Structure formats: C-alpha cells, structure tokens
Amino acid sequence: MAIDILFKNGKIVTDSGIFKADVAVTGEKITAIAASIKPDPETTVIDCRSKLILPGAIDAHTHLAMPFGGTISSDDYETGTRSAACGGTTTVFDFILQDTGETFPDAIKRRDALAAPQAVVDYSFHLAVKDVHDKLLYTMEDAVKMGVPSFKVFMVYDFGVTDGVFYEVLEHSKSIGALIGVHAENNELVNYLSAKYAAEKKLSPWYHYLSRPEFVEGEADERAIHWAKATGAALYIVHLANAQGLRAVTKARDEGYPIFAETCPQYLNFTSDVYKRPDGRNFVCSPPIKGKASQKALWDGIARGDIATVATDHCPFLQKEKDWGKKDFRKIPNGCAGIENMYPYMLSEANKGHISYSKAVELCSTNVAKIFGLSHKKGAVEAGRDADIVVYDPLKRVTIKNKDMHGATDHTIWEGEYLRGYPVQTWSRGKLVAKDGKFLGQKGAGQFVACKPINLKTPDLRNL
Ligand code: DUC
Ligand code: ZN
Ligand code: ZN
C-alpha cells in the first residue's frame, strides 16, 4: 500500500506519553507508526522536526446555528467547523434540540440535512431531550442504532425537563447503551433570583453571576449525581464550573460510580470578575464563569483525573445581539465563542508547564472519543484510526485577535490572550484543511461519524 503522506521527524503525543516516530497515512487512515519510515517516490513528506504530532481535538460540546435567546447562534455548520479546523479541532459534537413531539431519529435527520452539506470537518451529535411522553422515550433506542447514543437533559431554560423526566431518561439509558449528559443548574432559584434583582433594578451583567450563584450549579450537580446513583446509570456533566459540584463528582467517582465531568476553557481562564468589566455582557454564558476558588478547584480536578474532558460550549452571538442586554442582563443571549481557541489554549497551558501535553490530548481528544464511543476512529495518532492530525509548533507565539479567527462572530472573549505554541497544520481524514492560519478545506467534506453504544464494561470507560 503506497504511502500518501508521511509525517517525519516529529514527536507524537498520546494521552500517556511522548515519543519520536514517523506517521504514515494512506487515503483517510493512519497506516503505520515507526521510528523511521521510508517514503515512496510519490509520497508527500511533511517535515515535523521540532514539532509535535497530535490527534485532532474532538469538541464534545457545540451549539451551531442554534435557536436560542431570541436569535440563532452566529456560527453555522460551515463557519463553526471552519473555525474548529483552524484551531486544530477535527470533530465536533453538536447539540440537537428535539422539537416537542419529534422522534429522536427525525431530529437527527432534520439536523443532519443542515450539517452534511456545510461541515468542513467531521461531526456527530448529542440529542437534547425535551419530550419523552408515550412512545417517544422508546425512539431513543433508534437514535442509538443510528450512531447517536448520547442524550442531554437541561435542568434550566424553558426547554428544561422535570426531575421526573430526567430520572426516567436515566433509567431507560442503561438498557440501550445510551449516555445521559446534563446541564445542571437550579431553575427555580435562577428564576427567583433574576426576578428579585430585576425588581431592585440590579440589571448589570454582574447580576447574571449573582442570580446564578455558585450553589445554583453545585446543588443541581449534587441532585443530578443523586439520580444517577439511584438509577445506576452513567452520567456526563457538561460544562462543570463550580467547586461544590466537583466535590460531588470526586466523591461519587471515589465510590465507584461512572460519573464523567466536562469543563470549558472559559472557566479555566477567567473568573467572575469579568462580569464587572465594561464588556461583561460578552462573557455571559450559563453556567456563569465562577470565582477564583472554583477555578482553582477545576484545575485540581483536572490534575486528579476527576474532570474527564474539556469542551467549548461554543455558542456565539453577534455584538449587536449581546448589546440587547446592555441595560438588562436578562436580555443577553447566553453563550460565547471558543471553538477555535480550545486546543490552542489547552496546549499553551501545557507549553507553559501548567499541565502536560499528554493531559491536554487526553482532555480534548482521547477521553472524548472513549466516552462517546468514537475510539475506533478518532482520539489518537494510532495505526487504523482516521488521519485526523495536528502539527503543533511549540515555538510559535500568538496573541488571539478576533480578526484572525475563522468563524462568523464579530468579537471574542479571548481577544488579547497570549498563547505559547500553536497548531500550524490540521489534517482531516488525510486532507490538509488548515495551515499557518489559512483555511484550506472544503465545505461539505465533513462527514457524520456514527458513535458506538456506551458500554461501561469496556476498559476504555472502566479505567477512565
Ligand atoms: N449555555 C450557554 O451559555 N449557551 C448555550 C446553552 C447553554 O447551556
Ligand atoms: Zn448547557
Ligand atoms: Zn451548551
């Protein structure tokens, strides 16, 4: 089998170490890894001297073209995945919000019709559950068979579910190989506190944070874990941002329960002080960014392994839409851009010595593939897997500017952040899709990736 692309002289980063080796790619797959591989006459050789070779990141949490907060998030499947590619992300998991009365397979077909002609890198889905009355619950199994075995419930927003529905979905998940994710915040408290501050005319972005104090998330995390323990189901807590909830995760994991937690770069890099800034509204997302103690707890949770993944919760809105809430935090659409910044930021933290490169790879790629049933294709630079490869230059220096990003958003909370090192090439199934800050991919080249059902008995998940 002729070698099409050969990555030579680089160092491969896995979730457990770094070693020097060449990587051969034929067609869409990695076909060999060895100390020294000879190119064929027609092979394209990529010299990776002084570079790292990483698996493409898998963003486990995006909201592309999502109707929310009175508008639609500003990145669609084309601009969102283009931005992802330029930041070294080669697979995104987007959330499909089920329509009331809609079966889960119909929801997948509805969104795939949008994504397939647009996506520039591979994608998969999670289903956000709204309605499971009568037979709808049983269509979860059909979605699992279609390669979408992960579902999310919201405990907040007008499309949030009751504890009863949450419990029912957890119970049902066990027999069908599904994994339930949760956005955990206490809806009643959010509603009460928002109304209270509004009545007192306290309407600046700071009151977005105060109306969702740390325990609003912590208590909901504890409750969600309680239902997971009671049903014996696995649980994936999305965008965990607070110390109290993380303590509950640690305790449950120490007791042997399959609880997985995800956090996001915005919670690792900023604190709630951002809500006092003149542009505080741009940082409004839910759960809000928390205080210093929670931030420290998240980094400690990463070091201990109690935080399994880092994902973006990418949900960008235009400045004029964020400005709707200049005088009233309740009118600010919730969400921030981050799809292009996650891997560069986490790798920069590794470059600065805060975590190891292997940890960054584990959090942003390998663990995501393990948890969501994608390890047969993605999540590692390994023979047999898709050639989703990032070439990383540890010596490059980048100050993030929105004008250099590749999405459709007109501002970023990451403006001015300084990064040590940067992805300089992104390859998606053997095709170069980004190089030195230029997008080179093709609209529609991204493919839907079917995930395997969740099996807690596999070593992948047992040892996570
Ligand atoms: N939180 C956000 O900030 N945006 C999208 C959805 C969510 O849960
Ligand atoms: Zn959420
Ligand atoms: Zn989200």
State the main characteristics:
TIM Barrel; 14 helices; 8-stranded parallel beta sheet; 2 domains; binds dihydropyrimidine-2,4(1H,3H)-dione; Urease, subunit C, domain 1; 464 residues; 7-stranded mixed beta sheet
| DSSP strand tally | 21
The radius of gyration is 21 Å
Give me the CATH superfamily of the largest domain: Metal-dependent hydrolases
Q: Can you give the helix content as a percent range?
A: 25-40%
Enumerate the spans where pLDDT stays under 50 for 5 or more consecutive residues.
Answer: none
Question: Gap between N and C termini, in Å?
Answer: 35 Å
> What shape does the CA trace take?
globular
| CATH architecture field of the largest domain | Alpha-Beta Barrel
Number of domains: 2
Q: Main sheet: which strands, in order across?
A: 8-11-12-13-14-15-16-17
CATH topology descriptor of the largest domain = TIM Barrel
Number of helices: 14
The fraction of residues in strands falls at 15-25%
Short structural summary:
By secondary structure, the chain is α/β, with parallel strands linked by helices. It is built from 14 helices and 21 strands. It is globular, with a radius of gyration of 21 Å.
